[in-house]
Amino acid sequence: MKKILLLTGFLICLFSGINKAQGQSAIIKGKITDATTNESLMAVNIVEVDKNGRFVSGITSDINGNYVLKISDVKNQVQVSFIGYKKQIFSIEGRTTIDIKLETESIAMQDVVVTGTKVGNDGIVNVRDRATAVTRLELKGMESVMSTSVEDMLQGRLGNVDISSVSGDPGAGLNIRIRGTASLNARNQPLIVINGIPYDANIEDGFDFASADIEKFGSLIDVSPEDIESIEVLKDAASTAQWGSRASNGVLMIKTKRGTKSKPIFEYTFKSTVAYEPDPIPMLDGAGYARLITEEHFNVNRNEFYSQEIAFDPEWEEYNNYSQNTNWVKEITQVAFTQQHDFSVRGGGDKSRYNMSVGFFDEGGTTIGNNLQKLNLRTSLDYDLSSKLQFKTDIMYTRYNQDNTYDVDDGEYGAWTGKSVRSVAYRKMPNLSVYERDTLNNVYDTYFTPSSTLQGTARDSYNPVAFANLATQNRIKDNARALFNARYAITPQLTWDGTVTLDIFDQKISKFLPYKAIGYDYSNDITNKAVNEFYKKSTIFTMNKLIYRPDFGQDHDVFFLGQVDTEESRSRWYKVTSSNSASPYIKEPVNDKHFVSGSGDYGSSFTEYRSLGFYLTGSYKWRDKYSIMLGAKYEGNSKFSKESRWGLFPTLAAFWRLSGEEFMKSATFIDDLKFRFSWGQSGNTPEGNYLYYNTYRAGSSYSYMDMQGVQPSGIELTSLRWETIDQINPGISFIGLQNRLTIELDYYRKKTLDLYLKDSGIPDHSGFSSINRNDGEMENRGYEAMIDYTIVRKKDFSLSVNLNVSSNENRVLKLPDNYSLEYGNMLENGNYKISIIPGQPLGGFFGYEYLGVYSTDADAIVRDKDGNPVYGLGSEAPLSMIMGGPSGYVFEGGDAKYKDQNYDGKIDELDLVYLGDLNPKLMGGTGFRVQYKSFILNTFFYFKVGQEIINQTRMDTEKMYNYDNQSQATNWRWRREGDVTDMPRALYNTGYNWLGSDRFVEDGSHIRLKTVSLTYQVKPSVCQRLKLSELKFFATGYNLYTWTKYSGQDPDVAPPSKPDSLPKDNSKTPPSQKFMFGVNIIF
Amino acid sequence: MKKLITNIPVIITALLMIAAVTSCEDYLTVAPENDLIKEKFWTKREDVYGALGATYDALREASLQSLIFGEVRADLVNFTGAVFADYAKIGASNISPTNDKVNWKAYYAAINLANTLMYYDDEVFKKDQTFTKEMMDAVEAEALFIRALSYFYLVRLWKDVPLVLEASISDTTDLYKPKSPENVVIQQIIADLLKAKEMAYTTEYKGTAYFYGRANKYSITALLADVYLWNEQYQKSYDACEEIINSGLYSLEDNETWFNIYYPGNSAKESIIEIQYNDALDNQENPLYNNLIPISGSTGCEIDAKNVNLILEKEDLRNFMGKGAIWKYRGKDALGLVSRTSTERDGHWIIYRFADILLIKAEAAIELGKFDEANTLIRETLLRAGMPYEEVYDKELLRQEILDEKGREFMLEGKRWFDLLRAAKRNKFQKKQIIIDMILSGADIKQQAILKTKVYDTLSYYLPIAEHELIYNQNLVQNPYYDR
């Protein structure tokens, strides 16, 4: 009902603009000619225009340039326009025959670049007059040409916008954080706004694959970089207020290119990229592996270990299959090629403008079995019905077609989780053959996939090449979005602006695991397993604005804005799985006999939320010197109960323009200098809907005898409320040296109040184990500096540099006493302790201090503070160090040595030390741009300093604990009494040589030469001869070099998406070195 | 006029804004489609019985734990193996608040469901006319029984526990209760049971499984008798037993048929109340079959031969030694010949049977000085097991006799530890030596030295509060014994 009401209002508003005026009619005729050549002009528009600039009637001239037009009111004017000619408007003044001579337009047919009073993406406040923290990136010129994606383009360019890719695979998700992590459990990603309307491609929480989503299918910004005109990042609460709750983590505002008044401009860009992966960690070969495994066992049992599989016995019939030196990581890696085509046409006349584009993108992955195809279509139309009433419409369609290797991260089989192709390739026995070989060493084109090996069943150690090639996963994602906008000037001061958007997101994931990929036989219930998973989401967004800008003379600039916005989003998900399909060619889950009923194998779910927001703001500026803006957002969301549904979020922003003062006029090197201050609050909602409801569940697991059991599944959360983010942001903006130097400095302090604590433990005596609640505080603070300096600006040569540096310091301020967030059993290998403690930053972790390796058994003894051996009661020999765990393992020579912090002779939780956190202390980017005649050289460096990373890959490849292959670094391992080394001995399933310690924690600081790009712009004279208006060739290199001390493949590890996970480098596909070549043609 | 026309959009927008504010509550109320919500649930009689079913199911969840807690610290059964590693520590009196099994969650889950049921049944009574007052009373009686039984386990295991009598409905409920002293909880249990006894059905379900599987007047009375015995109110305990015996509904199964009380269970004569299992129904298989019975060589739970032989004669029918298993939960016949199969996991977990009443009455009789009657009662169960009985008239000897007979009769029915503890704590722990001797004799020599200093503290006979409970609820105070 509400929707209909709003829509009706919308329509009434529209049509009330068309009020017919009656007057005296007349007929005019005449001939239209070119003023210089006197040739008659055909198809010229002749229109009657009323006093509001609205078209009343119109006609076009015939082949001889003649026209006849019936005028409904002689008071109206006539407008004559033709592309390439100057427009004429005149009154009839009683004439009936009017001949018209049109003059050719002298301005070039190019985009008109307006400078000085650039209007921001919100369309209200001039960029120059902003008091808020907004960074703007104009994309005219080079930037878009150089990048393959929006994210790529943004990384490191905007202060305190941390963009890190989850993996280097095509279509992999991104982690974007603006000014740090502000919430423990609610959403931390910024809101993306495209052409004034929020864009939400996130998959709703509560669906089965929502958690894994970011890894594989992040919410990519589905806009081709070619289509983008500008991007703005809104960081402080005062600027994001308009966008309401989902904007509390900042807003990325994208404005796409629109048509301008010009004759048609065609633009075509082609890019071709080749990508190479950096060298993998060198792993042991077959012989080295066999030695290691033998030693692992000998060190435990003191007897020879024998397995046919690593014995290299030529007599064995399988000898040839088990005696190779396979570099598995290399086998699954390839050189990848990418192609990109973008074509667009734009232009328009007085009344309407258009921009249509089509883009095609085909990206190959550096890991075999991965690729992505993307098709973008976009149409935008602007139509001015009159000077008072304008319409805009945008239609966008994107299709993704993404191929990945079968994803085993979906919880189908607990033990199997995380066994990605790349991690198995690192672990896999190197002496195995990729393809089957017979006793004469003939190689067949069948993959060698034994169902079990020394390493265990094929489920855990499959043949990665077979798996990557045969086990498939395909995702088709369609995203269609239509926007309709009308703007009506009710009076010159008062404008109404209304928008409706419909956004449809549809995704299908189909997976198939053929028996050949894993080597199990047909009867096994994971062979020939087919999964179909559908997700559909539709969102309707409306926004109605009234903008009032009264005129109080030159000294005063006042405006008011009132806004009502609504959003309704509905998502549906379902999934079905079957296995043992009759043939690997039947990849759909149609096998009803083997409908798998394990957990997570099928399901269906529906969820919906709505929000309603009122926003009111007013601003006053006096004489270009002082300005103040006050605003408030009142927002309601269906995720909360009636009691706490509404949130009120006030904002304030002000500036003082020092350069506007009289006494500063003499300082001519200053073009603009202003001091800004903003304060504001914004709200954050939890992910997931219906949380406050007291729901009941029924099922056989609660039944007793024949009584069908029903029980409450949770407590009613009436006090669940908005997580509030309170932010202050003082800043300075400086422009000087004839607009050649721009400096922006910002400081901010962002405090999260009523921290949303998901699944927070409550006493068992309540009958439940956890609830969601709001309690606690967290803080992010830091600074941002941005400098843009054009050192030289001459006709043939220009040089400019830019630099942005930012820091963010995160701290948990307060948590309820009865809240505990601790993970990690430190008495077991491989774990680090995470503990969220007030006063410490989020993401901090604890572990042991690694001191190297005990050289001999006699070294592995307890020592007191002064280093003297400690003897047991009445014992002659010093006490041995023991592990504090239940087994009380006694350390020996060759074992890892950890610092016994409290000198109690035991390594246990009391010996933990703080090892660091994942938050970078400093990050930013810098680059320079040189233009010499037709050449432009652009370079960009990107850096992050001071985040600690757990090198999980190194841990996995140096632990020497099981049958996993290990890295060549393990050749330095301790082998016999007296060896002095840093690498402990090999111990099969025993000992504590890979406890979470500082041994595997590394400094992830790095500076990366992200892009070097050279563009050649063909001279206009040559272009003209080719009948082109512009022609550019460009070549770009990406990720050419990284300066770092980090030993893994990529130090740019994405921060974990949940507070209970660690910043681990899990040997995901690293970002590759890429070389791109391209051409850009405008005609 | 013209001005007004141009202002129409403004006016309409303004009106719409006002309309929006007044009706936006409706717009923002979105109910889940996947789940049943409270507002739609409590309307019909069937809803009440659904919730009652879940409450019994919660009690059943707790029953496995009750069984183990009733034996693990006592002397007749040993828990070993990986599955029971944490229980084994409890058995060895090496108990830490971080032990995963020191967890009262299962009992409080049942208590909360009972509380929720009692909170909402009134609403259904108002909405559904076919749900009569009598039906509602009976449901409340069952809920009170489940709550009382859960609290009775809690006080025997933890001594002082939070007394939660309101349902945890919303996050505005007080979820952070302090502990209440043992006697306050006991008084609540007694009050609840007295109330329940008045409201419960007497023989409504006679002849059906409900009669054994759901609480009625006599099962409530049986629990009451047991609570009175624990609380040293012997006359009242004695009277409660009298009431059950005099009802004429119950008697002991005889020699030939006595194994029927374990398989198939629900003995028409002897059963008073049993937690029901049914292999044919989803999720209602008896887990004891898997968890307590060593299957194909894996170890888990076994009878402590040394201690059992001290009290159980070879000729005693109840002696299943040498069967390699806990026969009560595995066998199909009294002779120890036929085992149950994995599709016959439907033995019940007995809370009270008539033998309990006889022996509770006997114990009360001893304390009341009615030695003759006590002797008669003890003889009954021995006689059924084919054993002779020699009457004794010394109070201490009789106390020992009843303790031994209970040990024999209820072996592995989750009662031994509570019987020992009750005997030890009588008259302000006058006989704590019973427990001290038992713990020390079970421990190896190395540990004995450590334990000796500990077992004299009677608080050590109760469990610690799990560590996470102390973190989540700052109003709780640890059992002082574990605080050192």
In summary, what is this structure?
Chain A is mainly β and 1083 residues long. Helix content of chain A is 8%, strand content 43%. In chain A, helix 8 packs antiparallel against helix 9.
Structural commentary:
The complex is a heterodimer of chains A (1083) and B (484). In chain A, 8% of the residues lie in helices and 43% in strands. Chain A is globular, with a radius of gyration of 34 Å. Mean pLDDT of chain A is 84; it is low at 1-21, 107-117 and 209-216. In chain A, a hairpin with a 4-residue loop joins strand 34 and strand 35 (741-753). Chain A has 1083 residues and is mainly β. In chain A, helix 8 (421-427) packs antiparallel against helix 9. The longest helix of chain A has 16 residues, at 286-301. Chain B has 484 residues and is mainly alpha-helical. Chain B is built from 21 helices and 7 strands. Chain B has helices at 2-6, 8-27, 38-41, 45-72, 85-91, 105-127, 133-158, 182-199, 209-213, 217-230, 234-246, 288-291, 305-311, 354-367, 371-384, 395-409, 416-429, 433-442, 445-452, 467-472, 480-483; strands at 36-37, 77-79, 161-162, 179-180, 271-275, 301-303, 349-353. In chain B, the strands form 3 sheets. A two-stranded antiparallel ribbon of chain B has the order 2-6. Chain B is globular, with a radius of gyration of 27 Å. The N and C termini of chain B lie far apart (88 Å). Chains A and B meet through helix 1, strand 27, strand 28, strand 32 and strand 33 of A and helix 2, strand 1, helix 4, helix 6 and strand 3 of B. Strand 32 (695-698) of chain A pairs antiparallel with strand 1 of chain B.
